[in-house]
């Protein structure tokens, strides 16, 4: 760390670091410039996942693609796995933020509407966000090639359910309760399986299977409401 990094910077130079950076990075960026470097590295990682997959991704190539020294990468990430895990954490926060905007814009009134819009947002991100089709919310285990099948895995589903509960209860103005927690987790697990099938059938997500996923969630969550 240079002396200039230790010098107090004006407020405009300080970063408003996203929440995910608190737990997903080796060192949380304290300055706007540092946060921009982290974002460049993650964007490079996402592009490389699309191009070469998880196993052929290297920290050296990620730093080169981001036009940054390799030492900068290791300031914030422990290794390749740390880089990928940070990307997954950022994806989850981005998903939650975008979903919350969609729910408020649509005036979602119940968990059925939350679930259907959650599917829409997931499909939209799979189609438009770099790297998201390889790695969405949970990094691969060492034996898995993320270029062959996307996440999330079971642990990732629990993280997604927690984020949905956080966003959904805020938008619906509800309190958390064990029954809702359980039903949202089951809904996430079911949607994960059907959406995985949809994207195996069609890289853009087979529309008929995406529709089946929404119908499944309406039947399950709507039936609970009744």
How far the N terminus sits from the C terminus, by CA atoms, comes to 59 Å
Query: How many β strands by DSSP?
Result: 0
Tell me the overall shape: globular
Per DSSP, the total helix count is: 10
Round the Cα radius of gyration to an integer and report it: 19 Å
**Are there runs of 5+ residues with pLDDT below 50, and where?**
1-13, 143-154
Q: SS-based structural class?
A: mainly alpha
Q: What share of residues are in beta strands?
A: under 5%
Mean pLDDT: 87
N-to-C SSE string, H for helix and E for strand: HHHHHHHHHH
Q: Helical residue percent?
A: 55-70%
- Tell me the major beta sheet: none
Give a short synopsis of this structure.
By secondary structure, the protein is mainly alpha-helical. It has helices spanning 3-6, 21-24, 32-56, 59-66, 70-76, 80-106, 111-128, 154-172, 178-201, 207-225. α7 (111-128) runs antiparallel to α10.
What do you see in this structure?
The chain is mostly helical and 226 residues long. The chain is built from ten helices and no strands. The protein has helices spanning 3-6, 21-24, 32-56, 59-66, 70-76, 80-106, 111-128, 154-172, 178-201, 207-225. α8 (154-172) packs across α9 (178-201). It is globular and about 55 Å long. The model is unreliable at 1-13 and 143-154 (pLDDT under 50).
């Amino acid at each position: 760390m240079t002396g200039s990094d230790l010098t107090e910077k004006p407020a405009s130079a300080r970063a408003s670091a996203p929440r995910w950076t608190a737990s997903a990075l080796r060192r949380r960026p304290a300055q706007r410039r540092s946060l921009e470097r982290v974002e460049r590295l993650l964007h490079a990682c996402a592009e490389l996942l699309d191009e070469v997959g998880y196993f052929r991704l290297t920290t050296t190539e990620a730093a080169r693609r981001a036009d940054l020294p390799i030492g900068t990468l290791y300031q914030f990430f422990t290794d390749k796995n740390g880089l990928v895990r940070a990307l997954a954490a950022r994806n989850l926060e981005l998903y939650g933020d975008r979903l919350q905007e969609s729910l408020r814009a649509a005036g979602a009134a119940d968990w059925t509407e939350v679930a259907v819009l959650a599917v829409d947002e997931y499909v939209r991100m799979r189609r438009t966000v770099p790297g998201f089709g390889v790695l969405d919310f949970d990094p691969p285990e060492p034996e898995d090639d993320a270029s062959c099948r996307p996440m999330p895995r079971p642990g990732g589903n629990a993280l997604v359910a927690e984020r949905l509960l956080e966003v959904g209860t805020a938008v619906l103005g509800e309190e958390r309760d064990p029954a809702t927690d359980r039903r949202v987790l089951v809904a996430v697990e079911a949607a994960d399986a059907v959406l995985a099938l949809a994207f195996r059938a069609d890289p853009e997500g087979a529309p008929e299977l995406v529709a089946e996923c929404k119908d499944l969630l309406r039947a399950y969550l709507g039936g609970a409401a009744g």
